[in-house]
Amino acid sequence: MSADSALLAHIGDLIEGVRSKGAPRFSEFLDERQQALCLPLAQRSGLPFLFFGGWQDASRRMLGVFPEYWEAQGEDFPLAVLTARIPKGFSLCHRDFLGALMNLGIKREMVGDILVDGQGAWVFLQKRLAPLVLQMDRVGKVGLAFQESESEAVDFEQRFQEQRVSLASLRLDCVVAAVCSLSRERAQEKIAAGLVSVDSLPCQRVERQLNSGCKISVRGEGKFILEHNGETTRKGRLCVNIKRYC
């Protein structure tokens, strides 16, 4: 059984558990592709459901499925938000925090987003793991202390690098070539190899027409948001704004 088939089978069992027990059930943290894969199954269930990751722009989210009488809310999720302030003079990144959690025996699917800026970090994870992580007193060689916080207190703004480009069309291969500084042929090879996703789902159609607001992920190159308001150049090319996730 493939990983995707196993995930869908698990979500199917979760849904049936809600029906039989009359109580909410929650998945592990899912990445955006997994969320897109599970969405049709959750919709077909006819039960209330919600994807929630602890903050408004979360990338990794749990799927919660609820009994028919339930009004699904984020506060229902078994999720904790832990914060830590990074001491002055030290620098830590997402990988440092994730590595520290893995060293505790915590699996990746138990952890949601890890947000890091120059001053501190926010770690989203299953609530049952909070006591273990709160005992940590360092990440790498940097001493720090975690404390539990409220998701409403998360003060993090996603940063982007913006690039203005002109395109002949909004075909997927044109966009990938532009955002990754590749030839059209090389962009088509990446798409055909399954290395490109649109709105979290793999896409191997080089001719696919994209819309403003689409999220494009290119393995090894990063993740981007496409913005187009209909503006064109004097020669009729499309003026497009590309926002690259930092």
TrEMBL record:
Signal peptide: none annotated. One of its GO terms (molecular function) is RNA binding. SUPFAM superfamilies: Alpha-L RNA-binding motif. Keywords: RNA-binding. The keyword RNA-binding applies. The keyword Magnesium does not apply. Residues 170-231 form the RNA-binding S4 domain. PROSITE patterns: S4. This is RNA-binding protein YlmH. It comes from Harryflintia acetispora. The lineage of its organism: Bacteria, Bacillati, Bacillota, Clostridia, Eubacteriales.
